[in-house]
Amino acid sequence: MKAMASTSGLLLLLAVVAGGTSVLTAAAAAAESPKPTPWPHQFHSILFVNYSGSLSLIDLWYDWTNGRNFNIVQDQLGKLLYDLEWNNGTSFFYTLDSTKECRSAQLDVGILRPNWLDGAVYLGQENVDGFLCNVWQKVDFIWYYEDVITNRPVHWVFYTGRSIHVMTFEVGAVLEDAKWQAPLYCFKKKDTQADYKLDVGYLEPQLQSILRASTQL
Ligand SMILES: *[C@@H]1O[C@H](CO)[C@@H](O)[C@H](O)[C@H]1NC(C)=O
Ligand SMILES: *[C@@H]1O[C@H](CO)[C@@H](O)[C@H](O)[C@H]1NC(C)=O
């Protein structure tokens, strides 16, 4: 009994010492850990998306300068969907084919800020898609992988399982203004509008709100 008591006393002492050491290590690591590179104010990316086996390609035109963000989503052998988001919270989801579908939504937040990854927790390095990446996690909603050498995004995964692979990353590329015009039938009275899921695109609106909220804290 006595031996056991002193053993547990020793274990407790070791635990306290180890605990103290790990606090120091964590503080040192926090001071040194890499930060995610803010998004360029304007870029174009082609994204390969795998959402539980449903594949799509997204043309992403991020344009913070003009307060707008565009996801042009081609589902594999399926629809071509346009997901246009303005920084005033208005989004349009539409097709440009003969079905003339359109739905709009009003969110209480605008598009992602260039620094939307601020405050993400650094998880270390990992090889993804053949690139050595720094990895961060943001509020349990997204895991983000950035190339260690070029600082370009390579991959991100949402908690929903939506998995994004960055195929191209053209910094400074801007889509011409005329292409940002939602079609006329988006502005007519709701009559023949299709029942769209709001989560088309590379980012669920709800997720956008959460990430924006956490960035503003
Ligand atoms: C898509 O993801 C699923 C897992 O959800 C995986 O089994 C499948 O191989 C992936 N497909 C491609 C083309 O990456
Ligand atoms: C937001 O901006 C877009 C583009 O200028 C416009 O079509 C939309 O009506 C605006 N929404 C609001 C709520 O002002």
Automatic annotation (TrEMBL):
Protein name stated in the entry: Uncharacterized protein
Signal peptide region: 1-19
Keywords: Signal
